[in-house]
């Protein structure tokens, strides 16, 4: 345990774990994520957002929506964001 490199690696791992997997961070984002409509609810609210079997942004009608993980990139909960106007549109799980 006297190896400073080993302690530095362990410290880096602990910080990485705390930043990406900390439950407090998950709870903060969870409420906003659950307030978003699901994909089906989004299409029901905005039927004109489905063009040629592709979902578009109802604000600017941009077609290339980007999925983003809620807490980190590998999160199974996604929110879809329009890269053009940066509106968060709907969520999937």
Write a short abstract of this structure.
Helices cover 41% and strands 18% of the residues.
Looking at how many chains there are and whether they match, the oligomeric state comes to single chain
Low-confidence stretches: none
Instruction: Give the DSSP E fraction (strand runs of 2 or more residues).
Output: 15-25%
Q: Helical segment tally?
A: 3
Cα-atom Rg, whole angstroms? 18 Å
In helices, the fraction of residues equals 40-55%
Strand order of the largest sheet: 3-4-5
Shape annotation:
elongated
State the total count of DSSP E strands.
5
- Helix-strand makeup class: alpha+beta
Mean pLDDT: 84
Determine the N-to-C terminus distance. 42 Å
- H-E string: HHHEEEEE
Largest sheet: 3 strands, antiparallel
Q: What can you tell me about this protein's structure?
A:
The protein has 93 residues and is of the alpha+beta class. 41% of the residues lie in helices and 18% in strands. The protein has three helices and five strands. The strands form two sheets. A three-stranded antiparallel β-sheet has the order 3-4-5.
